[in-house]
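Tokens in:
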């Protein structure tokens, strides 16, 4: 009986060890896949000597960063990404086949969902940007100097060149198009709220999404904004969809109180459309701020230089949001 018990214990130990080895191997496999998840899903190989990116080759291995060490790679900007839902950054250097001194670094930020990625993309968009208009559905991109940035599903992507070179920018633009072609969007990748802006007059590519603390007010979240043209005047309009009409009214009131508390001066509201939406206007240090609510939406105008243009833009936005409410 003792011999049998000893054999049983030995067998149990061997089985236990095999189970442990399987668990370790599985965990290692998951780790390896997760480390290269962002690159692999776009067909980009990691490691020197592999074909990737047309006229460019990857240099070295991809680097990965999480919430604990993101600051090591982008010191100073890490909080903005983290507040917007950052999950992981994968970075890979590339060099031109014809000139190893010419290259770029590719940053793929996993932002957990398409809205988070678009928020970071839109908030960082440079004033001198030129939009890339042929990236396909649910993709946004622009070129600015030696930099190309893309919002692609749950990923915010940057390509930062080593120099301002037409050859380099052309190469990066080709990679941007290749990435978007490999991307297979789902319904969750569509930002339907961009279609809520008035179709006529809204400047394409001017959209922004502030997830938190919109315009410095922490009570205004998930606020979409865009530039709207009234003749030759540009006005920034915005809206945020809330749970119900009562919440929208409360946020509109609180935002207006915030403006007045911080130095804004009350201005008379003109027009029946504006009055029907309970619109309030404030002269905020020389520019006009307007806020209203209609149905489940709180909306308004931000930093307008012309009061009449601001009122006209607000009336058009109210009409558009009423259509969506209905």
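Residues out:
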């Amino acid at each position: 009986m003792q011999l049998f018990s000893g054999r049983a214990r030995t067998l149990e130990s061997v089985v236990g060890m095999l189970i442990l080895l399987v668990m370790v191997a599985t965990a290692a496999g998951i780790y390896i896949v997760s480390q290269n998840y962002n690159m692999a899903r776009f067909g980009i190989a990691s490691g020197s000597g592999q074909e990737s990116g047309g006229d460019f080759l990857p240099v070295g291995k991809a680097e990965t960063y999480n919430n604990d060490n993101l600051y090591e790679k982008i010191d100073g900007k890490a909080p903005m990404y983290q507040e917007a839902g950052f999950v992981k950054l994968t970075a890979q250097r590339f060099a031109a086949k014809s000139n190893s001194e010419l290259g770029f670094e590719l940053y793929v930020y996993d932002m957990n969902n398409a809205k988070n990625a678009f928020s970071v993309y839109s908030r960082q968009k440079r004033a001198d940007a030129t939009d890339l208009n042929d990236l396909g559905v649910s993709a946004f991109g622009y070129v600015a100097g030696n930099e190309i940035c893309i919002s692609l599903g749950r990923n915010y992507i940057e390509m930062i060149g080593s120099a301002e070179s037409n050859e380099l920018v052309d190469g990066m633009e080709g990679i941007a198009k290749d990435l978007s072609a490999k991307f297979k969007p789902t319904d969750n990748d569509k930002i339907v709220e961009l279609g809520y802006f008035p179709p006529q007059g809204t400047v394409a590519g001017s959209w922004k999404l502030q997830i938190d603390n919109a315009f410095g007010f922490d009570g205004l979240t998930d606020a979409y904004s865009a530039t709207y043209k009234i003749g030759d005047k540009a006005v920034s309009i915005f809206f945020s969809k809330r749970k119900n009409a009562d919440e929208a009214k409360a946020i509109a009131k609180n935002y207006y109180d915030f403006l007045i508390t911080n130095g804004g001066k009350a201005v008379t509201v003109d027009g029946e459309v504006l009055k029907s939406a309970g619109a309030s206007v404030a002269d905020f240090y020389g520019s006009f701020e307007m806020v209203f609510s209609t149905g489940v939406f709180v909306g308004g105008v931000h930093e307008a230089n012309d009061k009449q243009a601001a009122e006209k833009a607000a009336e058009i936005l109210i009409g558009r949001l009423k259509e969506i409410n209905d």
